[in-house]
Amino acid sequence: MENMSRRKFLKLGGAAAVGLGAAVVTKTADAAQIGGSYQKDSARMQAKNWGMVIDMSKFSEESFNACVEACHSFHNVPNIDTKKDEVKWIWKQTYEQLFLDETHEHLSAKYKDQEFMTICNHCQEPVCVRVCPTKATFKNDQGVILMDMHRCIGCRNCMAACPYGARSFNFKDPRPYIEEINPTYPTRMKGVVEKCNFCAERLALGQLPLCVELSNGAITFGDIDDPQSGVSKLIAENFTLQRRANLGTKPKVYYIV
Amino acid sequence: MIEKALVKRSSKSYWAWIIFLLVLIAVGFAAYIYQMTQGFAVTGMSRDISWGMYIGHLTFFVGVAAGGVMIVLPYYLHNVKEFGRITVVGEFLAIPAVIMALLFVVVDIGSPMKLFNVYLYATPHSMLFWDSVVLPCYLLLNLVVGYSVLQAENKGVHYKKWVKFLALVSIPFAFSIHVVTAFLYSGLPSRHYFLTAMLPAKFLASAFATGPALIILICFLLKKLCGFDAGETAIKKLSTISAYAYTATLFMVGCEFFTAFYSNVPGHKAALQYLFFGLHGHNQFVPLMMVFVALAVVALCLMIPRQNRDNPITLGVGCACIFLTMYIEKGLTFIIGGLSETPFGEIASYHITVPELLIIVGVFAIGFLIASILFKLVVVVKKDRDVDAFPQEDRAGLAARLLAKGSDK
Amino acid sequence: MYKPRNIIIGVIAFLALIFFPVWSSLFTTGEAVGAEISLDTPMINAMENPKCVEDTEWMRANHMKLLADWKVEVVRNGNRIYVAEDGQKYLASLQNTCFECHSNYDEFCLKCHEYNNVSPTCWTCHVEPTVVEEGNK
What we know:
By secondary structure, chain B is mainly alpha-helical. In chain B, 75% of the residues lie in helices and 0% in strands. Chain C is 53% helix and 4% strand.
């Protein structure tokens, strides 16, 4: 030790502190569980790969508005009316805006301006999942793209990556903009990203997504990997469109025009 | 050794400069606190343009940091002795540049208290994760190498072998930081302005133009302020590197124009139209891009002919033009241009806000502060050890000082 | 410059200062009084044998850890049912299960958190019953 200068000592100390810090960090990250055990609800809706077919010809203005209202109020989505900061899970967009690659300049205004329901496409090859640096956005065992709000750092890489504009960032504290807070569902904090979750909290307990229930039959929800499911049959029998199918994201929301 | 930077031969104007920077940092910090309490609504970013000025600056300063390698690589790999005196300038330039880049990430994070989730839940398929790996590594390498080299010089000995080894390791890291940063954008399927294999190459070329240009300007500044002479050949070599890299960058910008407008694919044209000509009535960046074009022409005229490069005045103006044009192209407009066309085919505009501006100024001030301290340190050490670097120095006075230094021990 | 006496005095003063909580307790009498939390809610009062998902003692020590596990299991793994050590099943949900009985956030959670000087970040998103009542007025 006699040869150890103060400088060397400090250097060694610093290295030791970094090592110790790393050890503590790794330990907290994979700490073991405590208490009892966990299981899925026996009533959970079963599917390998949830998908959705939206038949716009069957969708009335009334039931569409009911869907938006129900979704946003159940999920405590704030009603912020500036376009810059707005948060939305489900909304309307015209054909021309939604199907950028399937339109042309002479398309009749009748079709161009027809309004379509817009939500997260729960892609099979999701770009948002690929770019997320913390796995806050992930795909669950039923092919639903979910967000772990506890983990989201708000880097907004997923927003730049999403080809569908499905994601909203909480530019401000959302609570003052929620007319009536639903006590059974959390709100979000400012500084995290959010989007439609295919009502994962309802699927887990054996209920269909809210918009599906309120669409009066315009939305069919089911397993697109199962050829016998309602969605697969609709896709087989009708002409359907996907948004920006050329990007390879394999979106799972299909539209019957 | 670091204490030399703080106290030794510090003039009043040096302290005034430091205090001025500290004030700017305090203002920037206050603006950051405001942003954190109010949320990102106080910035110009929106649901459509979700990345803005912060990420643009991140990109630009990663480039500045990587640009330092244009001294390190020739010196350590090709034994270009002329760079020996200023390798430490290249390494020390990378330090504030990487710190600024990292700070621009931190101020862009919506929930910074959860920032370390990036390391806790390491995600190899995310480019942002790799950025957060290579940037701190490159910072550490430059700190260790730069400091060790200068420390050896301070002691009057040759730096150790492992320092050279680390300097060699830092070379691929310099490339990787900018390539990974380019991959952040060039891998996004729906953003046509980003989605090009040209991007990493363009970023590297522009970095190798901007870095040397900035080092030349810093050398000029050090000469004016402290009489430090980087050496004529070193400056000449740097200016040649910068001129070629700059021409290559502009060539690639031109290629983007050709591909977009000759192919006539609307998605490919949108960002360029929005930035350079205005699109759907949105033309806020057009004046800035005209400045870019004008300055780029000036820079080419000043940097390509050799006699202009050999003249310190035209060289200085040329380097300033290179720096400014790349700052406009990469730092101010690249990100916003790429995100300007929304997934619904509309154009979204971006208006920078005062808090955002103050935060950017604050991060700049932190970078300038670190750079000032580091370059002061370089000059102080060189004054004692590298007599040739100060041709105008009063030799008798220097000898007296060195003698006094000897008797200190 | 080097005066051992001063250094020893300094070290002693430093140790005395940092061990203040230890030695000061020697001079205080009586036992520490914990936070007084209330279990007076309609749901708990209606229970014959009031019991949380696990034993009270265990919950007191481990509820934060248990909730952290719930958070991961529910959100990331889709396991919404918690099977307690006694085999009883519960929906793993802070808002839908915990608050069903502990509907008095201010008198239960908050009091103890304040006493222990902890500020869990749960409440930036998870809505406690008082917020719902006030916000929805």
